[in-house]
Amino acid sequence: MKKFDAIIIGAGQAGTPLAKKLAQAGLQTALIEKRQVGGTCINDGCTPTKSMIACAKMAYKAAQSENLGVNIQSYSVDLRKIISRKNQIVDRFRKSSVEGLEKTVGLTLLYGEAVFIDHKTLRVDMEDSEEVLTAEKIFLDTGLKPHIPELDGLNTVPYYTSTTLLDVEELPPSLLILGGSYIGLELGQMFRRFGSDVTIIERGQQLLPREDEDIASAVKEILEEEGIRILLDTRIKRIRSGKQIELDDGKQTITGTHLLLATGRIPQTTALHLEKTGVATDQKGYITVNEHLETSVPGIYALGDTKGGPAFTHISFNDYVLVAQNLLKGTNHSIADRQIPYCVFTDPQLGRVGMTEKEARGKGLEVEIASLPMDKTSRGIETGNTKGIMKAVVDRKSGKILGAAILGEEGGEVMSVMEMAMRGGFTAMQIMDHVFAHPLYSESLNNLFMTLEK
Length: 454
Known about the structure:
about 450 residues; alpha/beta; five-stranded antiparallel β-sheet; 21 strands; about 30% helix
């Protein structure tokens, strides 16, 4: 048995920097990774998808260039080259992370499956051997994996997940997507721009169920304008051979050449055998934590997606920052009051932070809604990017901004301006009178809050 001061399971966006920080502070640290350093973000999520989405946007710009007086006679999509470029970027990011870990004194990187055998003892099953490790402090950053729904006939047809679809080198002629949330929409629009026919099937009554109805409707309209077929409030009865999806109404069957399951993600905690430790999980397998990311067992922490809540890279990284500072600097940081910004990388982007209108009214708050279509913004008109809408939720009494959704070109960047304003306690009127450089997208925040005066 090898004794360490700290053991981290999972080399994702929380586990990797935490391992380096603890080792640099003088703790003998072991980092265990069963697959590849970098976690979902580098290997399956942010890095590969956004690399390919950039290529899809270039194809879209080429197709739309005549609207701006630039006539491109023809263009073609080389999916193999796009995937090769994506793989090179992923390899670059991953290798950089591995090199940083290997250079860190006091840090041991092990590749294998970690399994608890008692309270704070782990067995690491590696390719040709095994190790037994123990530590007083253990950190769990095991992430999520694609959820495979229980559907009649699904086991009789080949299907793709958000991971495996990224390596398909032949363009899918007809892509069927189950799920109308972030992953399904990003990949659906991307493959539509590459040239696939795309159908999105969503069981809920709107796309993006976390968003307000007007924002979700605006996203739907944008995607439909690009030729994506969207079916809402639609349940699947069975899947037949040949990728024929029979809908629950019994009246319609949809056929495609490729099937993508974008039906959410689930925690990878079963293989850990947490019952050997007493670490509590919820009914879905997410590890329960307090506001300091401590589990039900003293000395064991959970970070990143595995603890439930918003599954975003930046939240995982902030988990690392919080835990590292609390342990090494004696601070008392909490996740209870942190902002949760995020961006959906459809085109245009949807950046959001804070409360939705639905959430604010559900809490009984008196609010005003500022709303401005992107076709009323100077920058949008000048660049031809007029799709989308800006929206902010404002407390009626104090004028404080409670939340914002920016659906538009560079929506994530404009949302970040709003996030900083909210963090600083700026009111809507202060933003309305603020001097922004002209003609930026952010300058349109002046006009957004002018709508409150009207």
